[in-house]
Amino acid sequence: MVLSDREIVDALLKGEIIVTPLMNAAKQIGSSSIDVRLGTEFKLIRTIKQTHFDLSLPKEKIRRQVQEYTETVHIKPLEPFFLHPGEFVLGCTLEYIVLPDNIAGRLEGRSTWGRVGLQVHSTAGLIDPGYEGILTFELHNMGKLPLPLYAGVRIAQISLHRCTPVAQSYATKSEAKYAKSTEIRDTTFYEEYEYQQIQKWQTS
Amino acid sequence: MVNLSSMVNLMEKVLCIEVLEKISRMQRFLRLEPDVARQQGTEVLRIFVTALDGILDNLTPILRRLSEDLELDQWESLATVRRLSDIMNSVDELHTQLQFIHGTWLQPETHVFIKSVLEFIPEDRRPKRVSVILSNSYSFEESDLSLYFEYVLRRTNVTIAIQRETPTVFLPKIERDNPLNWAILVHECGHADYEGINKVLQGRQIIPDQVDASTKDILRRWAEEIYCDIFATQVLGPAYLASFATFALALAGAGGAEIASETHPADIVRICIIREVLEKNNLKVALAQPWVDYDDVTSFFYNVLEKRTKLDRKYVRPMVPLPQLPLILQDFVDASCEQIDELISLSRQLTLRDFSRIDHLARRLAKGIPIASYHNPELVELRRKDFQEVELDALRFNEVKQAVQEPRTLLWEIVNAGWLHKIESIYPDAFALFFTPSDTALQEKIASWGEELEATDRLLLKSIESSEIQRLMEET
Predict the structure, then answer these.
(1) Which residue in chain A is spatially nearest to B476 when comparing CA positions?
(2) Is A132 part of the contact surface with chain B (CB cutoff 8 Å)?
(3) Residues B343 and B230 sit within 8 Å (Cβ to Cβ)
(4) Do B462 and A96 touch (CB under 8 A)?
(5) Of the residues A138, A183, A191, A192, which is catalytic?
């Protein structure tokens, strides 16, 4: 069941959930959501000379390929980041979020920005119970004009859903790749067991 | 688990950890090389990596000896400290060679940090801007770049006049991500307060006429250094002492912390003055658990440096006779302390500050949570009761909401909490890792400890940046 504003405030008061910095509670806590702000770090997709991610390479080399595929840009406060039409970049929340083992979250856009074509996530909106860290946005400008984005602007919201306590929280999972992150981390798809299996068969 | 209260060879171990930290930071700096440069300059990077591994090999016997946890006698202690100094000097030398690899940009947070520091200088004499440059030499400095350029060109018989003030501070490359040591930049920003320095120097006859001209010059330069120390102490409190003391501990080198130069009074004299200012204002950041007999940040670092200084005294002899810290400089310190609240903007006076939440912030850092804002537990507790007992209407509910809002933390709080976290978490982890006998290779140990340092840096950088954004959002 989705948490109402009263339940959100109660959970914050009890320290069950942490959203920090929570700069303006009156503005950020909605009827059934908490607004989150844009942080200062972005990861842009680069044009690179590789034709594809080459799974026949050792893990370290694939990691370097992935690193090469993106470029990190760090903006200063009050400095705009222009997201051009059709462009896709990763961004992150200014807030660091801590969820308990019995609350899951969903990242959603805000109508204000949706109306000019800003998408804040394309595929990964679920926040697992027990998650801790910043949230990563998959920012996409679907409109026709460049969008000036500033750090500290409320561009998304999270809704919270209570569930029975999970048997294993995200933070304690060995495959939790993005736990306790304070920066945007690169994908590590090549470390997933399926890819390791594929790689094993391909190289055997 | 490290037993902090009965620690032996504390000074030697802290010095050793500081040297290891510099090595770890240099390793990290080398990893910052962009991919293209990395591919083209692989050989250069490889030389650095090999050199650092060689330096680590030199550290191994010292770590092994300190792991035995037997109290060293004074001669072995002196030998250990001299050896650690040599190793630190080699890191220092290697730092100068960073000129051969591609540079990297400053963190945006450095600009936020400097901007926040400048706001401590009263508006009427605040420089519009202080630039920051990453430096190849391991030293923190301040210079007016325009004057420097004029001077450099004049030596080639070309005279130019740039005629504008361009105060610039230099940050060693390997300290790029380390806000705890940016504390020393605050001292350097003090040098940019040209008017403030002149005001204190001219306001009182602190250098008597009877001293000769060259001594007068030296004393004037010393007085300026002391002014900047007092300024930095005003801005950051105990964190400045911590940062300066670890710098002096690691880099005192053959000179020893008791030796003055023509430009700077002896480090230990400066540390004494900083401690005096902190004590006069009763400013303490307490440790949750004492290390040996030291129960706050100031006494911890002061005593560690004092111990090294006493040891160096057995070995070092001053090369050049310089004026000892004369009573006239003590006069200057007293004058500055009397005017201490005039040195910085009224609203930011050190004596008005509340140090009680530093401990709470350090505990948050230990949990891996950024500290850009502060959750007031007392207010939260109060509102929690309201929330449970009363049926809230919309108006009252909005009041309760305010309790979960987090006021931002200030720069000095973030840096002091960072130092407290370093003493209470990072040092104990490092002591357990490096001074406990194990089969793990030193390279592996330093890699895993480097990750802890990096995570702390990121938390502090994020805190500085988010706090600034919160300030901007509040004001607008």
Answers:
(1) A78
(2) yes
(3) yes
(4) yes
(5) A138
Cβ-nearest to A26 among B368, B401, B465:
B401
Instruction: Enumerate the β-bridge partners of residue A42.
Output: A73
Size of interface A-B (CB pairs under 8 A): 100
In this predicted structure, what is the pLDDT of residue B404?
87
Residues of A in contact with B404 (CB under 8 A): 9, 12-13, 22, 25, 29
Domains and CATH numbers, chain A: 5-198 (2.70.40.10)
Residue of B nearest to A68 (CA): B35
Q: A70-86: per-residue pLDDT in tens?
A: 889 999 889 999 999 99
Encoding tokens for residue A169? Answer: 């929280």
Are A21 and B459 within 8 A, CB to CB? no
Cβ-defined contact of B469 to A152 (cutoff 8 Å):
yes
Q: 3-state DSSP call for residue B170?
A: strand
CA B42 distance to own-chain centroid = 32
Strand order in A136-141's β-sheet? A70-74, A41-45, A88-92, A136-141, A118-119
Neighbours of A91 (CB within 10 A): 25
A52-61, A178-187, B91-100, B411-420: which range is least confident on average?
A52-61
Are the C-beta atoms of residues A99 and A130 closer than 8 Å to each other? yes
Note whether B372 contacts A21, CB cutoff 8 Å: yes
The A residues from 52 to 91 touching B (CB cutoff 8 Å) are 64, 67-68, 74-78
- Chain B interface includes A12 (CB < 8 A): yes
Out of B112, B387, B398, the one facing A10 most closely (by C-beta) is: B387
Mean local confidence (pLDDT), B173-189: 95
Distance from CA of B451 to the nearest CA of A (A): 13
Distance CA B311, CA B84 (A): 13
Dig out the tokens for B123 from the structure.
């508006």
The pLDDT-based confidence of B460 (bands split at 50, 70, 90) is: very high
Active site residue A71: no
Q: Burial code of B390-414, b = ≥16 C-beta within 10 A, e = fewer?
A: eeeeeeeeeebbebbbbebbebbbb
With vertex at residue B215, the alpha carbon angle to CA B210 and CA B218, rounded to the nearest 5 degrees, is 135
What is the maximum span of chain B, computed from C-alpha positions, in angstroms?
Answer: 83
Q: Which amino acid is at B203?
A: G
Q: Provide ipTM, 2 decimals.
A: 0.90
Do strands A132-133 and A96-98 pair parallel, antiparallel, or not at all (unpaired)? antiparallel
Residue whose tokens read 């840009």: A73
Could you state, in order of their start, the residue ranges of all structural domains in chain B?
7-104, 108-352
Neighbours of B342 (CB within 10 A): 15
Position of tokens 């250069």?
Answer: B44
What digits encode the pLDDT tens for the residues B279-316?
A: 888 888 889 888 888 889 999 999 999 999 888 877 76
d(CA B303, CA B417): 20
Q: ω into residue A21 within 30 of 0, thus cis?
A: yes
Structure tokens at B400: 């309760």
d(CA B224, CA B47): 41
Q: How far is CA B232 from the centre of its chain?
A: 10
Task: Compare B259 and A159 and report the one with higher pLDDT.
Answer: A159
Among positive and negative, which fits the CA dihedral A141, A146, A150, A155?
A: negative
